[in-house]
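#lab-general

N.A. 3:47 PM
ok so I finally got the sequence cleaned up, no stray characters, all 135 residues accounted for. can someone with queue access submit it? mine expired

B.Y. 3:52 PM
send it over

N.A. 3:53 PM
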Amino acid sequence: MLIALTAFLIYHFGSHAPAVTLPLDQTAALIQKDVADESRRKQALAIIDSMKSTIKASAEQSSKSIESLNELLAKRTTPASQIGLAAQPLITEDRASAEKLLDLRFQLKSVLTPGEWAKVFPPPATGHTDAGKSS
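B.Y. 4:20 PM
back already:
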């Protein structure tokens, strides 16, 4: 039971920083390429840097929280209530980071024009076909 809980917490709240910052690097490259106005380009890149910093800080804090949680889980006599209390900071930190990243995304969207936004964040391919349509 405790091993399953640990795996769940690490999977959901563990450091995903490298997986998230790589797309931000790609986003920064697209901003460099597609945003002609230097002032707005600098603003947009500063927001991307803030996003990267937020992700890095979140990953570091989560790592510390996971370490503390693992210390408790290593003791077979640790009550479940104490484990729950130790896991709470992970949830709180994750939520705060997600909110900050969302705010930064809205800031970025306000800096870019709709055309630039579409180039930097192209819509995903839908994969829809006309097979189900009747004529």
